[in-house]
Automatic annotation (TrEMBL):
Keywords: DNA-directed RNA polymerase, Nucleus, Transcription. GO terms for biological process: transcription initiation at RNA polymerase III promoter. InterPro entries: HRDC-like_sf, RNA_pol_Rpb4/RPC9_core, Rpb4/RPC9, Rpb4/RPC9_sf, RPC9. It comes from Echinostoma caproni. Component of the RNA polymerase III complex consisting of 17 subunits: a ten-subunit horseshoe-shaped catalytic core composed of POLR3A/RPC1, POLR3B/RPC2, POLR1C/RPAC1, POLR1D/RPAC2, POLR3K/RPC10, POLR2E/RPABC1, POLR2F/RPABC2, POLR2H/RPABC3, POLR2K/RPABC4 and POLR2L/RPABC5; a mobile stalk composed of two subunits POLR3H/RPC8 and CRCP/RPC9, protruding from the core and functioning primarily in transcription initiation; and additional subunits homologous to general transcription factors of the RNA polymerase II machinery, POLR3C/RPC3-POLR3F/RPC6-POLR3G/RPC7 heterotrimer required for transcription initiation and POLR3D/RPC4-POLR3E/RPC5 heterodimer involved in both transcription initiation and termination. It is found in: Nucleus. GO terms for cellular component: RNA polymerase III complex. Pfam families: RNA_pol_Rpb4. GO terms for molecular function: nucleotide binding. It comes from the Eukaryota. Its main location: nucleus. This is DNA-directed RNA polymerase III subunit RPC9. DNA-dependent RNA polymerase catalyzes the transcription of DNA into RNA using the four ribonucleoside triphosphates as substrates. Specific peripheric component of RNA polymerase III (Pol III) which synthesizes small non-coding RNAs including 5S rRNA, snRNAs, tRNAs and miRNAs from at least 500 distinct genomic loci. With POLR3H/RPC8 forms a mobile stalk that protrudes from Pol III core and functions primarily in transcription initiation. Pol III plays a key role in sensing and limiting infection by intracellular bacteria and DNA viruses. Accessory protein for the calcitonin gene-related peptide (CGRP) receptor. It modulates CGRP responsiveness in a variety of tissues. Residues 1-116 form the RNA polymerase Rpb4/RPC9 core domain.
Length: 126
């Protein structure tokens, strides 16, 4: 077995796209079907990746570039889309924890960008 050294971090959105393409493929491998189905069910019901788009993710990545987030922090922000200051502080552990979110804090700015770019209210899209 050969190991591919071209390793890349994937967002939940990209994983869901891959799973959906495998599920809709005519070439189905029986041993993979349960894993694909349960993974798809989890991603569709428990993560915000169903309301994201490649354009929105790319726009968000560009918007937070000035904050010099690590790749892991950016990936966690995209995958989890934290909506409260507490959730955001957990994801971005290296930032100073602010008791009250002032409009000029990094957390407030990232949260505002997230709400505008990648976290859409599912009720709005109906």
């Amino acid at each position: 077995m050969e190991v591919d050294r071209n390793v890349k971090l994937l967002t939940n959105f990209e994983v869901l796209q891959l799973i959906n393409s495998k599920l809709s493929s005519k070439k189905k491998i029986r041993s993979q079907q349960t894993l694909l189905y349960t993974s798809s069910k989890y991603l569709n019901s428990k993560t915000p990746c169903t309301v994201q788009s490649p354009e929105a993710i790319h726009a968000f990545s560009r918007a937070v570039k000035p904050f010099e987030l690590s790749k892991v922090e950016l990936l966690m922000l995209i995958n989890h889309c934290p909506s409260t200051q507490v959730e955001l502080s957990v994801v971005m552990g290296d930032l100073l924890v602010c008791i009250s979110p002032a409009p000029n804090t990094v957390e407030h700015q990232v949260s505002r960008l997230m709400m505008a770019a990648i976290r859409k209210n599912p009720k709005e899209s109906e």
